[in-house]
Structure formats: structure tokens, C-alpha cells
């Protein structure tokens, strides 16, 4: 299956139907089996299955090899980052003076303009990116890509930089934040 990245508009469109919102809510609360999701959402199993099929087609939900359903929650954060209002030159005003110039040169409107050539400046951009990941939370590669896609289309390179420089760690197909400022 190809990499799916949901725009804020697509995500809102998916959640416009009350049945799909109820299914997503049940999954957020921890249900992963069709019957449990149906029970928690108050929907019939048939209606729950239809909502799950639509959510799966969109890439918001995945089905595991054991038949369980998993909500790809990284789409919510990626959509929020993509929809965040941009204040032009004030985008990095909260960054310390020395870092602000690096970020203003490399990142505009939340997107990578270019990677700095100096390693020290590249580390500033990677630290900025690391803030998109919650400490202690594990992410699948697909979730990491969904978050990074809002920043740079070359998610493989960006992900590799984050791992190589110690901002993310990886094991058994899972990623987690292991560095960066707080």
C-alpha cells in the first residue's frame, strides 16, 4: 500500500460523519477489535465495519495481521501542523536569537526550504523537528513519515538524519524520541 498522507481537509472530511467519529473515539479509548469498537461506539457491527472500511481506505486506520484495527494517530498531529497559521517572519520568534536565523533560513511556513550544509546548523533544524515527537511515545515508520511529510517530502532522508544524529531511536519497526531540547 502506498504512503498515505492526509491533508487537514481530508481528515476533517473523514470525521464529518458521526459514525466515523464514534468509531475513531472508540479506537482512541483503546478498542481494537470490531465487536469491541461497535459496542463502545453504540453502532451495529455492520455500520462499524463500514466506517472502519472507509477509514482504512483513507489510511487513517490499518488492519493488523491478527485482524485488529489500529488508528494512525500521527495523521492528527501532521494535519494540525499543516493547518497551523503561519505568521510569516514571526514563525520562529520564540526561538533563541542564535537559532532563529538558522531556522528562518532553513524552514519557512513549517516546510524545509533547504538543509543547512554546516552540521551545527543542521542539528538546529533536527532539534526543531524532534519537537514534533512526544517523548516516551512510540511511533511506527508510517506515523513518523506522516509527521515528517508536513515538513519535507523526502521522509526517508529526514528520518535517517533524525536517527543518525540521535534525535530518534529505532528498534523492531518502532521509533521514539531520544534527543532534542524540551
Describe this structure in words.
This protein has two domains: 8-72, Arc Repressor Mutant, subunit A (Orthogonal Bundle); 88-177, no CATH class. The longest helix has 14 residues, at 45-58. It has nine helices and seven strands, in the order ααααββααββαβααββ. A hairpin with a 5-residue loop joins β1 (61-63) and β2 (69-71). The strands form three sheets. Strands 5-7-6 form a three-stranded antiparallel sheet. The chain has a two-stranded antiparallel sheet with strand order 1-2. The chain is elongated and about 55 Å long. It has helices spanning 8-14, 18-28, 34-41, 45-58, 74-83, 97-106, 119-130, 141-149, 155-164, and strands at 61-63, 69-71, 107-108, 111-112, 138-140, 168-171, 174-177. α6 packs across α7 (119-130). The protein is mainly α.
Percent of residues in β-strands: 5-15%
Helix tally equals 9
How many independent structural domains?
A: 2
Order of helices and strands: HHHHEEHHEEHEHHEE
Largest sheet report: 3 strands, antiparallel
Please, what is the average pLDDT? Answer: 88
Spatial strand sequence of the major β-sheet: 5-7-6
Write down how many β-strands occur, each being a DSSP E stretch of 2 or more residues: 7
The backbone outline, from C-alpha atoms, is: elongated
Could you estimate the helical fraction of the residues in percent? 40-55%
Termini, distance in Å?
35 Å
Helix/sheet category:
mainly alpha
Low-confidence stretches: none
Please state the CA-atom Rg, rounded to the nearest Å. Answer: 18 Å
Amino acid at each position: 500500500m502506498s504512503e498515505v498522507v492526509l491533508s487537514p481537509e481530508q481528515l476533517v472530511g473523514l470525521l464529518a460523519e458521526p459514525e466515523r467519529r464514534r468509531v475513531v473515539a472508540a479506537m482512541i479509548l483503546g478498542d481494537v477489535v470490531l465487536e469491541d469498537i461497535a459496542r463502545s461506539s453504540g453502532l451495529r457491527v455492520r455500520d462499524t465495519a463500514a466506517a472502519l472500511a472507509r477509514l482504512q481506505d483513507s489510511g487513517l486506520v490499518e488492519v493488523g495481521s491478527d485482524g485488529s484495527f489500529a488508528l494512525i494517530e500521527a495523521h492528527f498531529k501532521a494535519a494540525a501542523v499543516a493547518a497551523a497559521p503561519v505568521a510569516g517572519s514571526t514563525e520562529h520568534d520564540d526561538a533563541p536569537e542564535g537559532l532563529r536565523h538558522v531556522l528562518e533560513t532553513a524552514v519557512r511556513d513549517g516546510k524545509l526550504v533547504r538543509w543547512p550544509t554546516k552540521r551545527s546548523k543542521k542539528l538546529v533544524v533536527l532539534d526543531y523537528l524532534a519537537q514534533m515527537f512526544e517523548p516516551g511515545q512510540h511511533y511506527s515508520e508510517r506515523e513518523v513519515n506522516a509527521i515528517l511529510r508536513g515538513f519535507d517530502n523526502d521522509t526517508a532522508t529526514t528520518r535517517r538524519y533524525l536517527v543518525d544524529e540521535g534525535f530518534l531511536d529505532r528498534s523492531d519497526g518502532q521509533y521514539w524520541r531520544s534527543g532534542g531540547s524540551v
